[in-house]
Design a protein that fits this description.
The chain contains six helices and no strands. It is an all-alpha fold. The chain has two domains: about 5-65; about 75-160, no CATH class.
Length: about 160
């Protein structure tokens, strides 16, 4: 069988790999049942759905004709580095790294840093738009996680909240 869309084929395989990893990871937790879900229920269902989606996409890549075979292009290293880096910066700023003397800066500062850092991955950086987006994300995250879900997250830097 010939691959008729390389992009769909490889993306389908990545979906399947993530799905299998989620489902396999979920088996280490109590699954429960639909009425009384355990901590492993959602990752298991998500893993199964991702795997099925990957199977469908991979099958389609082998069946549906494309004009040029949709080859996979070069890896966009700059956006990849900024997006991965933004997530690392978020984690470090949210919780801090006491071993290296980096204090927790809190949710609001971490979301602003994440948004501004990730915006550098694009072709055009618009300060006003990024600032508005960061503000909306920070307010929404505070409302969702701190107010509604009552999670105990550091909201502001430790030196401001003491």
């Amino acid at each position: 069988m010939r691959i008729k869309s390389q992009r769909d084929f490889w993306s389908g395989l990545m979906f399947m790999a993530c799905g299998v990893a989620f489902a396999w990871g979920a088996t280490g937790y109590a699954i429960g049942e639909g009425a009384r879900m355990g901590p492993g229920y959602f990752p298991l269902v998500l893993g199964i759905l991702l795997t099925l989606l990957g199977l469908f996409i991979t099958f389609e890549s082998l069946v549906v004709e494309t004009e040029d075979g949709e080859p996979v292009g070069a890896i966009a290293w700059r956006p990849l580095a900024f997006i991965v880096g933004a997530n690392l910066v978020f984690g470090v700023l949210l919780a801090g790294v006491p071993k290296f003397g980096i204090p927790a800066m809190g949710l609001i500062v971490a979301i602003y840093a994440l948004t501004f850092f990730a915006a550098l991955a694009g072709d055009a950086f618009r300060l006003k738009e990024v600032a508005i987006l960061a503000t909306v994300l920070a307010a929404g995250s505070y409302l969702a996680f701190v107010v509604l879900l009552k999670l105990h997250l550091p909201v502001w830097p430790a030196f401001l909240s003491s």
